[in-house]
Amino acid sequence: PFGRVIVGGLLAGRPVIATQAGGAAEILDDPETGWLVPPGEATDLAEALQTAIHASGASHSHPGNEPSPCTRAVQGYKMAQQRFSVERMRSALREHVDRAVR
After folding, report:
1. pLDDT at 89
2. What does the alpha-carbon distance between residue 42 and residue 40 come to, in Å, rounded to a whole number?
3. Closest to 35 in 3D by CA, of 57, 88, 62
4. What is the largest CA-CA distance in the chain?
5. What pLDDT sits at residue 7?
6. How many helices (H) does the chain have, and how many strands (E)?
7. For residues 37-75, b (16+ Cβ closer than 10 Å) or e, as one string?
8. Residue 100 CB neighbour total at 10 angstroms
9. In this predicted structure, what is the pLDDT of residue 66?
10. Sequential pLDDT tens for the chain (102 residues)
């Protein structure tokens, strides 16, 4: 699965937490643009959720030089705009069609 919900969250400017499976690992760059947790690891998921919730107002780096949830959301938004915006998808589709016609 590609993970359209992940891209939607990024484009909405929200911190995104996803399992490290399917397209999520190709979309998110942990720790820069979100959190990736191993499938079935409830403790890791709970930790990521707590970090995102309790630090959501902070904009500075956290211990271990990890970006804050706000910073991750901003970076995720920028990355999603570059890679997955409607304009970018339209342009990529046009390029593919043009190549196929030639």
Report:
1. 87
2. 6
3. 62
4. 54
5. 93
6. 5, 2
7. beeeeeebbeebeebbeebeeeeeeeeeebbbbbbbbbb
8. 7
9. 80
10. 688 999 999 999 999 999 999 899 999 999 999 999 999 999 999 999 998 887 655 544 455 678 888 999 999 999 999 998 888 889 999 999 999 999
Task: Extract the tokens encoding 24.
Answer: 């999520």
Tokens of 88: 């970018």
Supply 59's token pair. Answer: 């904009």
Closest C-alpha to 61, from 45, 49, 74, 44: 74
45/10 Cα distance (integer angstroms)? 18
Residue type, 95: E
Token pair 């409607």 is found at 86
